[in-house]
């Protein structure tokens, strides 16, 4: 076992967890605290890891003009891919019609979830900026932490040599956080096994009830994003061999599927992007933490599919203009969601409320949300990595060993 890589060990834990859940069913929930402790430890390191890595990543890039260029590309890629993913989610939902044939009487008529106040566009944008960075750090408001880290990193660059002490502090702090991350991730096979065992033990085959078709369509939408968008980006923009990509991204998927947290998976995402794809550390430290907070390609597929799902159940025809509004709203929500507690369920209620659609279905979706959220998180993080690879290629911040081998062979022959 000592000779196996961490990714292999995590995958073994993933499989063992599924088997334990199927064998022991709900009795396996006795080991739930083990998975909860693992998740808590990951959450413990996320805030300081993002704070140190983004700040040091920015001043490591050094050139303010280059930083501006990379920052602009990051926003374009993240917002652009989110819009496209939302469109794909709508298209798939229209093709497979998950809401057709669902008996309205089988839907719970009540839900313990209440609609939250819907923030305006201005409130959402204002909420991204911290009035008190210390409070943002204490509350774990990731988007506000990112904004403060960006300003701090840029300020260190502008101050120049006078900020040497600050540079050393953040550089050493980043290395300390990486070491702490390594210690915690050494226990990830056990944590992943416990999380998957409890998930399978709790839900089992019950998930394939009235919502079975919706779950299936949701995952078809996620796979469609990979096929229609990511494969194109990888082949023609990032120029990464697909076999190499899927071999490495699998190490991340086993963690995203068990933790269902983009931020919680961040240590693994950064590690794989640097070590497997050879992306320069300063770029990975800058783009990936931002992506973990605002780039929600998988989430918008779900939001789009859920809206069409509900409208089909109740026979409500949505005009094209309203469907385009769904895409824009889900993109905006994916950026502002870190400041709104409750995750995808609360976001679903907000969208249904805004569009004037019934909310009775939300209670059932909440019951199986972890199952579908495994796919959402996996696609969210995959989008972060794919966009980072594209940016790295365009900025010559990736070491492509295969291309170097090909160049050597061309010279020989």
TrEMBL record:
Its main location: membrane. The keyword RNA-binding does not apply. Keywords: Cell membrane, Membrane, Symport, Transmembrane, Transmembrane helix, Transport. The chain crosses the membrane at residues 7-25, 37-62, 74-96, 142-161, 182-205, 211-232, 252-270, 290-311, 323-340, 346-369. It is found in: Cell membrane. InterPro entries: Na-dicarboxylate_symporter, Na-dicarboxylate_symporter_CS, Na:dicarbo_symporter_sf. It holds the Pfam family SDF. It is a multi-pass membrane protein. This is Dicarboxylate/amino acid:cation symporter. It comes from Bacillus altitudinis.
């Amino acid at each position: 076992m000592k000779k196996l890589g961490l990714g292999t060990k995590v995958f073994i834990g993933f499989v063992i967890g599924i088997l334990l859940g199927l064998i022991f069913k709900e009795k396996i929930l006795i080991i739930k605290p083990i998975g909860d402790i693992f998740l808590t430890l990951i959450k413990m390191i996320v805030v300081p890891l993002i704070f140190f890595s983004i700040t040091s990543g920015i001043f490591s890039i050094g050139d303010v003009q280059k930083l501006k260029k990379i920052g602009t590309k990051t926003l374009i890629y993240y917002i652009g891919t989110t819009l496209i993913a939302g469109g794909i989610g709508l298209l798939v939902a229209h093709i497979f019609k998950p809401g057709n044939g669902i008996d309205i009487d089988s839907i719970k008529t009540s839900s313990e979830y209440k609609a939250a106040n819907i923030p305006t566009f201005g409130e959402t944008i204002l909420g991204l900026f911290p009035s008190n960075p210390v409070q943002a750090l204490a509350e774990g408001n990731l988007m506000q932490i990112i904004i403060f880290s960006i300003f701090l990193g840029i300020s260190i660059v502008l101050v120049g040599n006078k900020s040497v002490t600050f540079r050393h502090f953040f550089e050493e702090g980043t290395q300390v956080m990486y070491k702490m991350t390594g210690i915690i991730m050494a226990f990830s096979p056990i944590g992943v096994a416990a999380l998957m065992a409890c998930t399978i033990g709790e839900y089992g085959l019950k998930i394939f009830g009235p919502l079975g078709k919706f779950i299936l369509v949701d995952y078809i939408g996620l796979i469609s994003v990979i096929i229609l968008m990511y494969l194109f980006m990888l082949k023609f923009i990032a120029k990464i061999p697909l076999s190499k990509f899927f071999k490495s991204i699998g190490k991340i998927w086993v963690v995203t599927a068990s933790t269902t947290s983009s931020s919680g998976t961040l240590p693994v995402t950064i590690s794989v992007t640097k070590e497997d794809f050879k992306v320069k550390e300063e770029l990975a430290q800058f783009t990936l933490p931002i992506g973990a907070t605002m780039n929600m390609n998988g989430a918008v597929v779900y939001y789009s599919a859920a809206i069409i799902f509900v409208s089909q159940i109740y026979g409500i025809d949505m005009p094209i203009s309203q469907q385009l509004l769904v895409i824009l709203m889900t993109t905006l929500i994916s950026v502002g969601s870190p400041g709104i507690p409750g995750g995808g369920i609360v976001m679903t209620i907000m969208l249904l409320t805004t569009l004037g659609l019934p909310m009775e279905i939300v209670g059932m979706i909440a019951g199986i949300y972890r199952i579908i959220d495994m796919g959402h998180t996996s696609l969210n993080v995959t989008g972060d990595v794919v966009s980072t690879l594209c940016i790295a290629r365009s900025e010559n911040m990736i070491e492509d060993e295969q291309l170097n081998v090909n160049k050597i062979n061309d010279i020989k022959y």
